[in-house]
Amino acid sequence: MTAAGPLLLTALLACTAYTAAAARLRRRGDAWPWWRQACCWLAGTVFVAGAALPWQSWLPPFTAHMAAHLAAGMAAPLPAVLARPVTLALRALPVPGRRALLAVLHSRPAAVLAFPPVAAALDIGGLWLLYRAPLPPQTHHSPWLYVHLFAAGWLFTFAVLAVDPLRRRAGLALRAGTLLAAAAAHAVLAKTLWAAGPPGTGYAPADLRRAAPLMYYGGDVVEIALAVALACQWYRAQGRALARRSLPARRHGPGRGGVPGPVPPERTPRPLRPSDHRPRHQEASP
Amino acid sequence: MTYRRAVAGGALLGIGLAAFVDEAVFHQLLHWHHFYDRSTLGAGLVSDGVLHAGSWLATVAGLFLYADLRRRGGPPRPAWWAGVCLGAGGFQLFDGLVDHKLLRVHQIRYGVDVTPYDWAWNAAALLLLTAGLLLWRRARRTDRSRHRGRMAGLRG
Predict the structure, then answer these.
(1) A260: nearest CB among B2, B49, B151
(2) A22, A82, B137, B139: which one has the fewest Cβ atoms less than 10 Å from its Cβ?
(3) Contacts for A9-12: CB closer than 8 Å, 24+ residues apart
(4) How far apart are CA A166 and CA A175, in angstroms?
(5) Which residues constitute the domain of residue B47?
């Protein structure tokens, strides 16, 4: 692991730059939640743990690769996206830098890359190539592979969560559907690895049979976390819509002459008793 | 139409619950079928993968829908449970007919005559579906009687 030093240094530099940018915002009087900063350091730590720890001395070779793959390519990108590095950069950079970053963000290639199906195809397609194309046998243990896995995972998570400003945000249905398709492809690939390892490698069957379930269930954990993040977005948006709709409801009660005003849709008060859910037979009209 | 939303949310949670019970009981506790079955077709694997990923995501979606309905004054209970039964029964029937029999992803159990297991599996699915349909009918009636005989804008 000769590249462990540079990887560790790069991750440390990135997290330090993030912290400095957040500190600059706070000095200016802007708020930047502490938990986003924690997310950034968590992502850096998990990535370094995946890519630079000597997994091979503890686990059989392919299982070791899979543990590093899970940490660097799946577990690290989620907090790295939740930390909203792009938003922070847009706020903390001086004006010329901000303009340059916006130009990149609003360019056509960026829009294509961040379109959820494209990002998913790149991420999952890369994985299929990695495990199903005849690559040189040392590929699975190269530290630069983990850098690539992190980048691809970050792009996918960035496209599905869409928390940073882009010119066009894909709708929730498209993002959720993309997550479902990617999760299914990931599960199928993990299952086939149980039966046959990557071509041109001579991993032992026992090794494959530890690595495949690790990829399958480890992938589940990260995908559920992603789904919860998406569902939280939906829940908050619904809450804001409800609050907006219930404001006029309080202002326009039954108007003059007892004529009911315009009724806002839904938003009913919480029932006082369970019996409020049931039909009241004594009130049934003929 | 709160009650339609409640049926949909319940169905999502029902799919997730059925898949979770299947995975926990038959795969991990009883070891009746395995992680991977060598006789599997490609189409079967894909169906299995979609079902597996979909069941987890459906669970998350169902729980958040429930939270949202609670915020709006609680889901009408028969409608919610109708959804849960329909979702769980539908998942079981799909797994029992399409995955086990059509695509032959895996069988319920190996080394024994599988016929009684198949019958029990699909009969349980039909029972759940029937219960779901009965509850749905009740939920629709409740919904109609609530909409009848009350002024617009007031919850009877």
Answers:
(1) B151
(2) B137
(3) A11/A44, A11/A47, A11/A48, A12/A44
(4) 14
(5) 1-154
Residue of A nearest to B1 (CA): A266
User: Number of structural domains, chain B?
Assistant: 1
Q: Does B95 touch chain A (CB under 8 A)?
A: no
Q: What tens digit of pLDDT does each residue of B1-44 get?
A: 577 888 888 999 999 988 888 877 776 666 666 666 666 677 77
Q: Does B23 lie at the interface with A, CB-CB under 8 angstroms?
A: no
Decide if B153 and A260 are in contact by the 8 Å CB cutoff.
yes
d(CA A219, CA A227): 12
pLDDT value for A253: 55
Q: Which positions ≥6 away from A41 have C-beta within 8 Å?
A: A15, A19
The list of chain A residues with pLDDT below 70 reads: 1-3, 247-286
Compute φ and ψ for B61, nearest 5 degrees. -60, -45
Cα–chain-centroid distance for residue A74?
9
